[in-house]
Amino acid sequence: MPEQVLALSARGLRKSYGALEVTKDMSFDVPEHTALGIIGPNGAGKTTLFNLITGTVKPGAGRVALFGQDITKVDAKRRCHMGIARSFQVPQPFAGLTAFENGLIAAAFGQGISEAAARDVAGEALDRTGLGPKANTLAGSLTLLDRKRLELARALATKPRLLLLDEIAGGLTEAECHDLVALIRDIRAAGTTIIWIEHVLHALLSVVDEVMVIDFGEMIAKGAPDEIMRDPRVAAVYLGPDEAELEVVHG
Fold it and tell me: Which end of the chain, N or C, is less surrounded by CB atoms within 10 Å?
């Protein structure tokens, strides 16, 4: 049996802002070609964890490895070149530029390639996310769904090996969410490893192999989706301990 390759390995990650400890001794692995879902209440430290992985925030302690290489001291730009990309909860395109120009910038700077090469990559990323027909549309005039697609296109234009998705299904209609999930499944099927923070649970659970639950900066559970959603500790995070106990009794 071939040895499992870890796309990401985090050990003992900690991050504090003054007296507030946002991430507490976080340790977990993400095997290559899998999808990990991350859930937890607002303020649990999920986005801070993404910032630690992408390198935009430095940990107070701990380390991060990408495909076996320690990247703890590697800056965000270099991590992007090495294959980490992310989307943001609130889409952050260059509103005054076209969708294609947004993809072009992502490809050129995210991979460190020439403009000529980036043009082909940007076009491919837009086509892959269904934005090809809107390549010349200003990003600021796109619908919410298309701005989310553009977030994905910009991330894909960097040719990621590890893709981080932050609340990408939030604010979408049921039909829009269905379309977006199909796209994420296609990205995963093509070999990209995914870590996905999401509150729209039915979307998340239809894609991921494992779910990790974070509360107050700590991992309280990690496992198969069905197992995690039956865990009384997880119910307590979302419902409160009293309601969670009733859920277990009457579930």
Answer: N
